[in-house]
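Note to self: the last two entries modelled the partners one at a time, which told us nothing about the interface. This time every component goes in together.
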Amino acid sequence: MRTGIATVSLSGVLTDKLAAIAAAGFDGIEVFDNDLIASPLSPREVARRCADLGLAIDLFQPVRDVEGVPPDRFDAVLHRFGAKLGVMEELGATTVLCCSNVGADALDDRDLSAEQLHRLGDLAAECGVTIAFEALAWGRHVDRVGQAWDVVRRADHPAVTVAVDTFHLLARGDDGAALAGIPGDRIGFLQVADAPLLDMDVLEWSRHFRCFPGEGTLDVAGVVAATLAAGYTGPVSLEVFSDVVREADPADTARDAMRSLLLLDDQLRATLPPAPVAVEPAFLEVPAGRGVTPALRALGLAPVGTHRSKPVTRWSNGGVDVVVNDDDAAELSLGVTAAPVAGIAERAKALLWPEVDRTRGAGEALLPGIGSPSGLHLLVSAEAGGPDHWADDFVGTAPAAEDLVAIDHVVVAVPTLRLNEEVSFLRSLLALEPGAPEEFMEPHGRLRSRAFRPRTGGLRVVVNVEDTGAAPATGITQVALACSDVRARVRALRDAGVPLLAVPDNYYADLDARFGLDAELLADLRAHSLFYDRVGDGELLHAFTGPLATGFHVELLERSGGYDGYGSAGTHVRLAAQRSAGQLASGG
Amino acid sequence: MRTGIATVSLSGVLTDKLAAIAAAGFDGIEVFDNDLIASPLSPREVARRCADLGLAIDLFQPVRDVEGVPPDRFDAVLHRFGAKLGVMEELGATTVLCCSNVGADALDDRDLSAEQLHRLGDLAAECGVTIAFEALAWGRHVDRVGQAWDVVRRADHPAVTVAVDTFHLLARGDDGAALAGIPGDRIGFLQVADAPLLDMDVLEWSRHFRCFPGEGTLDVAGVVAATLAAGYTGPVSLEVFSDVVREADPADTARDAMRSLLLLDDQLRATLPPAPVAVEPAFLEVPAGRGVTPALRALGLAPVGTHRSKPVTRWSNGGVDVVVNDDDAAELSLGVTAAPVAGIAERAKALLWPEVDRTRGAGEALLPGIGSPSGLHLLVSAEAGGPDHWADDFVGTAPAAEDLVAIDHVVVAVPTLRLNEEVSFLRSLLALEPGAPEEFMEPHGRLRSRAFRPRTGGLRVVVNVEDTGAAPATGITQVALACSDVRARVRALRDAGVPLLAVPDNYYADLDARFGLDAELLADLRAHSLFYDRVGDGELLHAFTGPLATGFHVELLERSGGYDGYGSAGTHVRLAAQRSAGQLASGG
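The predicted structure of the combined assembly is written out below.
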């Protein structure tokens, strides 16, 4: 698959964009005319810069409102188009995207449109240029790919082809079937973009909410597959506008964009090492520091082993393991088990996810480390019983089962502009699947939250974005530990002097209003500072510490009756309580 | 008009909200249940806090999904409603807002809904409480005020009334006429909110984009007038949710909210000192500092007078006046002429716009100073020829006419969260009218821009918001000066060593493509670093300096043929050029 991206898809000035696109390994670009117009580089200088960077200029775009034009004004179109052909000659570009007319005065006359495109085709052909004619989803009279193809067919000119844009096509409710009957060599260009399904004006949707394939909900792969099946052999080129890419770092955007094409290609042709099918939480790695040991002891963990070659101690309580690293360079990390370990490391590398530097002694577990955009460090271990299991690197007593059952979930906070990338990390590397997005009021803004889980396996990761104007926390901000008896664990924490988040009395009054709880349970919840939720027969009881010396808040929870959520109904209360307590409101 | 506001309309925790609401002078509040639930204060403590602050609790809201409930689950509703009545008793609140059912299982049976509301009415009446039943615009079966009134009429209970909410009513396409036939004493509560007209899902629109009356485009005043005409005598209470109010400072929001009610009241009953009908730009006041004098000289201004009592010098060139203030506390300010001066000062005071401290010598012009949310200082002078004209405070030679014609417009930058307030300043104090909102790509984000002008008079103010992630500039960032010969003024600036913003050659190539300019004009534009625009017979030629020692960029412009805009087609080029030159991209 030949990869491309439009310069409009990144922030910065043109030279910033070209550098970022080249660094991410793209084959070619679409030059967005406004980027060129605003650049101090001449078209020839841009062409030279691209050549130096190894980037082909696959498309010049857009030229607008060129067909369906009232005949008395078509001379101005010819002048404008001719001028842009001159620019293209200097750029060395040989395909130009022409969009369907959006003008209020556009004429609804396909023969006229065809005739005008034919005349432009003559001009283009003289310069060795091909026109790709695109149906904008908000075109005045041509807004579907089938209509654009009809005009191109009538134009009947070798230099006039149709453009396929997945966003415009899918936004109008078409799918790959809309390309039936279009020969592949009559498709002049393929632009790809995804978007979340939003019920709003299509132009605003397109301008502000497009995203890279796989980050939205449109069937981009289906349209790309149909285009390739028709025989199209040109670039698969990303054209994404959004409030996010306008502001994000262009290097980040370019990598995120390239990954989306790697995943798209994998979806169509299985080109990547396969994703793991089951991922389980295994351990947390915590940098050593003042207060860490007391915090772990208060949670009922005890030291049970030391690492063979590193200054690392394993602490354990039942199903929960924490390794404490005395190395100054240690980072808060999440260990998971998944198979095959080497394959996941290769998949991460193929997807451009950065490796986290780790030394490794002879005979020790492979344990590759991979960094996410939020700064989450993921360490991948094999399951117990085979080679490359993390725990085999430790010498010591086997842990006795106690009252902690498992790491239930981990909450990761990410800045707004990097949310798409973090989601891509979880989906692309680990094949985690997203739950429904949720949004909570926070006293100084909003918290957007989404839970991710593998199709099989017990890992749960909640990704949070805070829109509060303040600099957000990043990486792991909260770890939820499943307890066999959450009340007992709360009491033990209190005995150890660890205060729990104070829950307002009004919350319990509201619980009673909503659920009609019996007085004893209500008193018990209140006495243990527990939040409560119920869905059908399922119940959740959970409590929160403040930020611990471990670097994260701890949530203690007990699920029963098949409760599968995260206590969303009480989240706004917890956020306000955390804000009142002066804690960062970044838990989830 | 009795004024109220819902606590959900402000950011912060409940106690922050109450303090901000009281400081802005509201009569009463709506207690948003979730605010109470998340508060560590008991309902009685909240009641006491409100009493201390002089705030009545006019409404408790909302209780959801209480009618159209499958009968086997109505007992749970009675339990929930009863519990909330208990809370209300402690709060001392006597009106409760019940929203129409949004549940997928809600029954479409008005008699059932009426019967259920009747039973709730019995419970409420026992506690001295009245129910106000509201049709949510996204209610499952009751989504228009007429339907809610039909249910209330059938419920036939003195404690069951209908609520009017301007947003819900107008969002469904109704207007004040929808209230025909509803007696005023059967309207239990009036909630007001405005919104910009957006083509999107109503629930999302409501959650994220509501604003205070006059800040959107809905006919809020019409519905309020109809409600009052029906005989409603209760509070006019603001209920606004938005991404802005979630994050903004609650004190700012509360003042902005109160102003919107003062303006609404004025619209209905002419309660404020009248707004000026004509406003003209008069002068700029600039703090003295290194480089200011050379910058003014380069612009062709010369000193023509000194202030009678202050260390202030008047500089002039034709129709442009700048006063340079040697006082250390001087701020960049805009002087305007408008009448009547004293009335405008009173209007500013009535609308809670802060006065800017100014000393004034005996016999000198009144010249009241008023501060806008962006930090713009506005000084209001009478016209020449009468008392209170600013220029009469200066002694010196009368300025000779030269090549500057007038202050064409002033660009004011404002942080995103304060845009609504800044707009309110221009509209409420000066009765300026907004043009269409525009949005421009900036290399690191977006620039949103809107021009304001009086119905009569020459003042033009452009308000800009930068969404670039960086801390935005605020206050006056650019001043556009109209020139009789912009080319000559550009040459004079260059002779004086003031560089102009470099315009990329590609821009001129595009100009030619778009307009087919003759070669001589094109060469001339290029030689003078001029931007160009044409609409019909109108033309705009304009050039930009970098930021000067005056504290703002200067735009030099020449309009002809009735050109009335701001050169929007070239704005993205200018923004990129300013970014490339390392200048703040905050001009407009």
